[in-house]
User: What shape does this take?
Amino acid sequence: MRTHPLATDAVLALGALVSMVIGSFANPHGPHGPTFGTRTPEPFSLVLMVLGAAALVFRRRHTRTVLAMTIGLCLLELTTGEPRAPVAMSTVIALYTLASRTDRPTTWRIAVLTMAGLTGVAMLAGPLPWYAQENIGIFAWTGMAAAAGDAVRSRRAFIDAIRERAERAERTREEEARRRVAEERLRIARDLHDVVAHHIALVNVQAGVAAHVMDKRPDQAKEALAHVRDASRSALNELRATVGLLRQSGDPEAPTEPAPGLAVLDELVDTFRHAGLPVKVMVELGRERDPLPAAVDLAAYRVIQEALTNVRKHAGPEVRAEVSVVRVGPSVEVTVLDDGGTAEADADDGAGGGHGLLGMRERATALGGSCFAGPRFGGGYRVHAVLPVA
Assistant: This one.
């Protein structure tokens, strides 16, 4: 029916024609009630019924034209037909079609004019008394056609709205899933960068020390190589834990240890001290306060790790660093300072260079905080992050 609408309308028109012709043989005013076969329609009425049915074939292509044509045919029948034939059936179908395919105000304006016009002509110009049931029937049938068409249009609009909402919700879910995947990839990339950059920097420093003192002080070279071994083992363990987050739940090889945090800050600082970077640490979180949320704890640890790694990589020799973690009101403030050493920092130590500084800012922003990194007055570098606890 949807593929061939014209053929469907032709079948409907044929059914309407058959119904009108059969109805024209019925006499509602028989001596003992309605009778069938006691009257015959006039040839002119048959012509009007054929024309009205033929117009219905194009009811969806030319809705208003078909309605106007069927109204004209119905008016001719109401004023000339004796006995009257049910040509109004074609008008009822055309009015239903218009009501189902247009808006409600237009529907009821046209419907009221049609109902009043046909009923008025039937009462005033027809051969029957004005109070005849056939006249009232015209009013009722045209009104019901308009109401039925409007109800069908409303139901279609409701179904379309539900379908549109469902499609929009599906698109929203897909966009949300893509956004979460992108955020997770970014988070894993930050963790991998922090782990690799930190440990590789330490391995590089200790390997350089070992190569420098290998011939003159083998004991110190062995100690440096031991630090290289420890740093590489730590890097492998953290990489295994980070990549293990991608495993399926329930995998026996998935990591079970907690993410690093300020509880292991001393171990992190010791790795830098072994690499020749003097670091002073001051942590003041308050004894009576609640423990930090895991996300804040991890972010603070990673900011300190990345900042000290940059100091070790880019600052000059004999550099010194200071780390402070202080809880101030609803936030935790993390500050990492260095004095720059005896030489200028590398050229790539700008505030916008590399992924490390970007990763620190992203971690702070994800928690609703902020992170600033830039040169200090008088030399050195400063990293300051504010991480809301709530």
